[in-house]
Amino acid sequence: MAPSRSPLENTLSSALSKRESKSVLRALTTTPQTSIDFSSNSFLSLSTSLLVKEAFLKELSTNPSFQLGSGGSRLLDGNTPYAEALEQQIARFHNADSALLFNSGYDANSGFFGCIPQNGDVVIYDEYIHASVREGLRLSRASESFHFIHNDLEDLSAKLENTVRHSNGNVFVAVESLYSMDGDLAPLREIAGLVERICHGRGCMVVDEAHSNAMFGDRGQGCVHEARLESRVFARLHTFGKGVGASGAALLCSKVTREYLINYARPLIYTTAMSFPSLAAIKVVYDLMESGGTQPLLNHLQSLTSQFHSLLRSLPSTTLLTIPPIPQSPIFSLLTPRPRVLAKYCQERGFVVRAIVSPTVPVGTERVRVCLHAGNTFEEVEGLMEVLREWVQLTERKRSKKLAEKDVEEVRNEGPKARL
Predict the structure, then answer these.
(1) Prior bond to 81 cis, omega within 30?
(2) Which residue, 214, 246, 271, 362, is most buried by CB atoms nearer than 10 A?
(3) What are the φ and ψ backbone dihedral angles of 257, each rounded to 5 degrees?
(4) How far, in Å, are 50, 280, 370, 412, 414 from residue 420 at the CA level?
(5) Distance CA 309, CA 399 (A)
(6) Cβ atoms 238, 222 nearer than 8 A
């Protein structure tokens, strides 16, 4: 006999049932090791690289007295010379005044926006900004926060001008350099120009480089570096769980901002610091990027991106798949009215792609998200493309058959009426 549920558990179960009825219930899944990865954020495949693994093990052996756990928060017993040296290395690589490590990009964003904007300040963010920024703004002392239309310079300009007219505080503009759901880039130079022209010294541009770190710019230094905007951006977030293939994050900012975060950012203050193995994994990848060792991976990934887009364009015109324009990254969003069906079809044939549905993306923009990786081969891309083509053809045939059957049924139903 199952134990009876408490009133709270009944409420939780009801909420889950509602999600399930709308086909938006989330669940943890595992992926067969034999599957081909077209889903994860490990764009350079560094998390599975034998070269990186060997460097990581060597780094551990070079520091034989390391502790498995850090032992506390950065402000108590969790700080080490190794962590501080890594922050300095990261800051130098990205041409920043200083860097501050966080356990995750979520912690960094929520910590930054939860404490840096002050009373009287205003935060304007791209409507597709990460949920962690919105979470930080829920805790923020900023007087107001609102979004602008995704990558829309005209809308941002109007909202900046209106804000400056009615506010004397600082104006934060938060964007991502590369957006993870559509794979498109922010027009960083143009946004920086608007902030400087309209805000008259009170503008603070904040760029989340979670998906562009290790992927863009010289040796993977990021989009801000590629656009030569380091001195014009107030703060940058670089995470290590995607292109770098590790975990954690760092905020790049001025020294006084770093000191303020150490004193006021709760996700930093009240959590155990990263362990030595986590820091070592980050360091060996930064060593590799500094030496130019990731450039061949980036070159191969670019070739795969061009190949996949060319193959997509060769698909017959169909309402089942909307093909993205010229790609700006290895992230492809294939808009489809049947994302779960298509994703399952691909997975059953050994290709891991994911359906992205509401509330992660707006209703009407459901899609299958395809992420290419440096570890993928041209043959694997062709294999995925063949599965996509098969699914489109099969679904079109089924749809045509149903329409034909419907037409026959309507004729049968109309026949007797016509004779009356």
Answers:
(1) no
(2) 214
(3) -65, -40
(4) 79, 85, 56, 14, 10
(5) 26
(6) yes
Residue 27's alpha-carbon distances to 16, 18, 19, 343, in angstroms, are 11, 14, 11, 15
CB neighbours of residue 247 within 10 Å: 17
Residue length, the chain? 420
Report CA 269 to chain centroid distance, whole Å.
Answer: 25
Q: Which amino acid is at 70?
A: S
Q: What is the pLDDT of residues 367-387, one digit of tens each?
A: 999 999 999 999 999 999 999
Q: Taking the complete model, does pTM exceed 0.85, yes or no? A: yes
Give the CA distances from residue 42 to residues 129, 304, 372, 388, 389, in Å, rounded to whole numbers and listed in that order: 20, 15, 9, 22, 26
Number of H helices, E strands in the chain: 14, 12
Q: Which residue has the tokens 């409420």?
A: 11
Whether the pLDDT of residue 214 is over 70: the answer is yes
CB-based contacts of 101, cutoff 8 Å, min separation 6: 74, 83, 86, 87, 248, 249, 250, 273, 274, 279
SS3 37: strand
**The tokens of 246 are what?**
């590790």
| Residue 354: strand, helix, or coil | strand
Q: Report the run of H or E that residue 335 belongs to, with start and end.
A: strand 331-335
| Average pLDDT value over all residues in the chain | 94
- C-alpha span between 234 and 123 (Å, rounded): 13
| pLDDT(29) > 90 | no
Q: What angle do CA 141, 146, 150 make, to 5 degrees?
A: 140
Return d(Cα 276, Cα 266) in angstroms, integer. Answer: 22
Would you tell me how many other CB atoms lie within 10 Å of the CB of residue 256? Answer: 10
Task: Please check whether residue 322 is in contact with residue 297, taking contact to mean a CB–CB distance below 8 angstroms.
Answer: no
Q: pLDDT tens for residues 313-331?
A: 998 888 889 888 888 999 9
Specify the DSSP element, H or E, that contains 344. helix 339-348
CB contact at 8 A, 124 and 157: no
Amino acid at 178: L
* DSSP-derived pairing of the beta strands 367-371 and 331-335: antiparallel
Gap between the Cα atoms of 355 and 37, Å rounded: 14
